[in-house]
Write a structure and sequence with these properties.
Xaa-Pro-like_dom; hydrolase; 496 residues; alpha+beta; six-stranded antiparallel beta sheet; 23 strands; ten-stranded mixed beta sheet; globular
């Protein structure tokens, strides 16, 4: 029954999306076993266009997300095959569910699997070797970027909720993103077969030796191979992505020299594009289709003439476009921060929220992570209030906190939160970032918070809070220690 479930779901998708019997063109869905790297069997849904001649047809390869099987993209694949004439292969990534092998965390075999699926699609499914695209969500997105660097046949990529630097994503500023790591490890064990790399990484993580995990990051990070990518790359991520936050994305996008498109919108990991993968109306997947149509089929749909940076404010509003990511910031205002001292190791009500849950609430319901700033313990957190914004304004870009810091403990973690706060002191979290410091010497810390676009209402103000405990992360602050902030500290606020 478990093996037949994907087939039943695919049949249901085909029934819902199929055109009337007399209409042409259409599509056909098949369940196939494709030999991956080393002959490892990979299970796949192959969606082929019908009523369009004998081909060959442009080929799209979509590896599944972490913990998800090959049904993931069948809805989107059916639309791409029927409406645009693609051969689309949605397959379960190595080591998960019905595919064989072990999870190697986007290692050499998993990346090579993408090329082997391309081989099969060209030889067995009428795929056109000169018109190959790859894409996916999360784990599938990262594989797609890595494969584009390794296989010159890949002409276009659509990477949604992707990572570009694995270490920066899960170990930002030497601070373990505990909820994200635990979620990934649990999902891997429940839905797949961890290989040696993942087993060793989990052992080091459990023993608090996260620095021993870091060597696996460079070869699994698309940023390391960015110079080898020749494909046109579209990236879509969410402002509140709890697994792969946007700062590593904007840096990668800026460094990329091929045709490119960046879409940043409200939500958490995979939420912005979730329904589009099922074939439902979705503006992210609409752009994916246009991207592939232009770069693989030569369709003059105008996407190449649009500004490559498309951003939607995190707290509501329409899409805004910019020629570069840097152009999203028109000016920067500097707010001085007074000297302060706090006791470390004590939690406060200032928090970044829960991975997947908080960002999804923001994206779908416009319910931000909130705080009552008058109730924040001033002994355990520094609170700096900016001036009232008498006119509406927009934070647009990467806020930076320049802090002169003197910790009293050998290792201390700071968490910086930027809020929009109303006249009653009620705040909505705009962005945040952790940093872990080693040593007791005084030093200047330039802490870049996560990029954002956020509309600030007239009459509200920005408030920066810095404390030393956050449930999302594994911090290093010791009870009984303290942190002093110098009077030469400041906050740089990017504006549109």
């Amino acid at each position: 029954m478990r093996r037949s479930l994907p087939l039943l779901l695919a049949a249901l998708v085909a029934l819902v999306l199929a055109p009337p019997a007399q209409a042409a063109p259409g599509f056909a869905v098949g369940y196939r076993t494709i030999p991956g790297q080393g002959g490892t069997p990979l299970k796949a849904f192959v969606v082929e266009p019908t009523g369009r001649g004998s081909g060959p047809f442009p080929l799209l390869v979509l590896p599944s997300s972490w913990g998800v099987n090959n049904i993931e993209y069948v809805g989107a694949a059916a639309r791409l095959a029927y409406e645009s004439g693609y051969v689309v292969i949605s397959y379960t990534s190595r080591g998960f569910h019905d595919s064989a092998g072990e999870i190697d965390v986007a290692g050499p075999d998993t990346v090579a699997d993408v090329s082997r699926v391309i081989d099969w699609g060209i030889a067995q499914a009428r795929g056109d070797a000169s018109r190959v695209g790859v894409g996916g969500i999360s784990y599938g997105a990262g594989q797609s970027l890595l494969a584009a660097a390794a296989d010159p046949r890949v002409k276009a990529v659509a990477a949604l909720s992707t990572w570009t630097d694995l270490a920066r994503s899960l170990y930002p500023n030497e601070t373990v993103s505990g909820q994200a790591v635990d979620l990934l490890l649990t999902a891997g064990k429940l839905t797949g077969r961890p290989g040696p790399v993942l087993r060793d990484a989990e052992a080091a993580y459990r023993e608090k030796r996260f620095e021993d995990v870091l060597p696996i990051s460079p070869p699994r990070s698309p940023m390391s191979g960015i110079g080898s990518i020749q494909a046109a790359v579209m990236i879509g991520n969410a402002w509140n992505d709890g697994l792969f936050p946007p700062s590593q994305i904007t840096d990668f996008f800026t460094a990329l020299t091929t045709p490119k498109r960046l879409m940043l919108s409200p939500g958490d990991h995979a939420t912005a594009e979730l329904f589009g993968a099922a074939g439902l109306p979705n503006e992210i997947w609409d752009s994916v289709g246009r991207w592939f149509d232009h770069h693989l089929k030569g369709v003059a749909n105008g996407i190449d003439r649009e500004h490559p940076v498309q951003v939607k404010p995190n707290n509501g509003g329409s899409w805004r476009s910019h020629p570069t990511w840097a152009a999203a910031t028109a000016r920067t205002d500097t707010v001085p921060l007074a000297a302060d001292r706090i006791d470390a190791g004590w939690p406060t009500i200032a928090e970044s929220g829960t991975v997947l849950v908080s960002g999804a609430l923001q994206g779908f319901l416009r319910l931000p992570v909130g705080v009552s700033t008058p109730l924040i313990d001033r002994g355990a957190a520094a609170v700096w209030r900016g001036p009232v914004q008498w006119g509406a304004t927009t934070v647009s870009g990467t806020p930076r906190a320049h802090l002169t810091v003197t910790p009293s403990a050998a290792r201390t973690t700071l968490f910086a939160y930027l809020y929009e706060v109303n006249a009653l002191g009620l705040g909505a979290l705009i962005t945040h970032k952790p940093v872990t410091l080693t040593g007791t010497h005084t030093r200047a810390v330039d802490l870049d918070l996560e990029p954002t676009v956020w509309n600030v209402g007239a009459g509200n103000r920005l408030v920066l809070v810095v404390d030393t405990v956050d449930a999302r992360y594994q911090g290093s602050s010791a009870l009984g220690s303290s942190v002093a902030f110098g009077a030469d500290s400041w906050l740089a606020v990017p504006r549109s």
